[in-house]
Amino acid sequence: PGGIKPFEVLSTPDISPSAYYGTGYNSTYSANVAGGGSDATYNVAFRYAREDGPYDVTNLVGPRFIDQLPFDAKLIDFDRRYQGSANVTMFPRERVTVSAGLMLSSLHHQTPQNANNIYGVQSSLLNSKPENADCSLSIGLPNAGTYGEDTTRPGHCAGPGDEWGTLAFTTPREAAFSRTQQDVDHVNANAKTSYEPLQGRLRFDVTGGVDISNSRDHEYRPFGYNVDQFTGLLVEGYKGIGSRYHQEMSLDARMNWNEKLGTSLTSQLNFGTQGFISKTHQRFGEGWDFPGPGIEVAEAGANQDVLESFNDIVSLGLMGQERTGSTDWA
Fold first, then answer.
1. 215 within 8 A of 182, measured Cβ to Cβ
2. Main-chain phi, psi angles of 142, to 5 degrees
3. Is 330 in contact with 259 (CB distance < 8 Å)?
4. pLDDT, position 54
5. What is the pLDDT, as a whole number, of residue 192?
6. What residues pair up with 198 in beta bridges, in sequence order?
7. For residues 27 and 49, what is the distance between their CA atoms, to the nearest angstrom?
C-alpha cells in the first residue's frame, strides 16, 4: 500500500537532526573610553552580546502542537550577556596612589534538554528508527491517511504518534517541550591605597574587595507535554527552581621595609594580614503533578520538595618575614 516497492529506498529527510537546524544569529556591541592626566587616569568599557542559536523546532513540533510550546520555537537556544567595567587610578599627593575597579556582568541562557541525555532532543533524534514509525494514534484525524500519516506533510503523523520510531523514554517532539533557563549576575569591586613614605625603602599597601555572584535557574515541563502519548516522565508537569548566592569580602594590608645595616648587612622585613568573609546561600524547590494546563509555579504541584543550605566562613591570617643578607658579590 502507498506505492512502496521491495528494495526501494525510502527517504524520510525530516527525521535527520540536520532538518531542525536553521540560521543562527550572533551580534556583539562594545564601547570603550579611556583618558586622564597627571592626577588621575580612567578606563570605562561596556560590551553586549546576543546569540540566537541555529536550533529551530518549528518543524519538529509541527503545526498541530506548536501553540502548546512554553517558548518561541525559534528561541529554544538563546543567550544574552551584558558586561561592564571601570577602573580609575588617582595620585592625590606625592608617594600616594589610590585605585579602584568595578566589574559587572549579567547572563541569560536557555536551552532544551541536550547533550548525552536520554530525554534530550538531539539524542532522541540520533536514536531514531524510522523503520519502526507508528502513526496509528492519528488515524481518523483530519488530513490523516490510512495509517495516520499526514497527507499534507509527508514523513509526519497527522497528530500524535511516533513518526521517529523511538524505542524508549520520549519522542523528540516531547523532548522539545522541556525548558531550562539560567540567569547569573556577577559584581566585583576593589579599592587599593599605596603609600611610600621612604621611596624604595618603606611601603604600605591596603586592598579591600568584594565579589558577589547570584545565579537563578529553573527547569520546566508543561502539563500534558506528552503530546505523542509516549513518554511517562512527569507528564502532569514539573517546575524546579534554584538559586545560589555567594559573597566574598576580603581585606589585605601589608608593609615592606628594606634597609641597610652598616656597610655589608641588608634587611628586608615583610609583614601583613589578610582576612576573608565568605557567605553562600543555596535554595532549591520543585513541584510536580499540576492540576491542569497553563500553570508554571512550583507550589501548584500536588507533590513538592524544598532544600536549603547556607554557610558563613570567616578566616584571618598573619604573615611576617625577615631576610638578612651580608655582602652582595653580584
1. yes
2. -55, 140
3. no
4. 85
5. 96
6. 202
7. 6
Confirm if 54 and 24 have CB atoms less than 8 A apart.
Answer: yes
From CA 150, how far away is CA 144, in angstroms rounded? Answer: 5
CB of 184 within 8 A of CB of 107? yes
Sheet containing 40-52: which strands, arranged edge to edge? 25-36, 40-52, 78-93, 96-111, 179-198, 202-221, 238-261, 265-288, 303-326
Q: Are 166 and 133 in contact (CB under 8 A)?
A: no
What is the separation, in whole angstroms, between the first and last Cα of the chain? 96
Q: What is the per-residue DSSP string for 241-254?
A: EEEEEEEEEEEEEE
pLDDT at 18: 66
Q: What is the pLDDT, as a whole number, of residue 288?
A: 95
Spatial distance between the Cα atoms of 46 and 29, rounded to a whole number of angstroms: 8
Classify 175 in phi/psi space as left (phi over 0), alpha (psi -120 to 50) or beta.
alpha
Distance CA 82, CA 68 (A): 31
- What would the grid cell of residue 276 be? 576573608
d(CA 79, CA 179): 14
Q: Letter for the amino acid at 66?
A: I
- Which parts of the chain have pLDDT scores under 70? 1-5, 7-19, 330
Burial 307-329 (b: 16+ CB within 10 A, else e): eeeeeeeeeeeeeeeeeeeeeee
pLDDT at residue 1, rounded to an integer: 46
Q: How far apart are CA 320 and CA 33, in angstroms?
A: 41
Residue 256 sits at the vertex; the CA angle it makes with 250 and 260, to the nearest 5 degrees, is 175
Residue 261: its pLDDT value, please? 82
Q: What is the pTM of this model?
A: 0.80
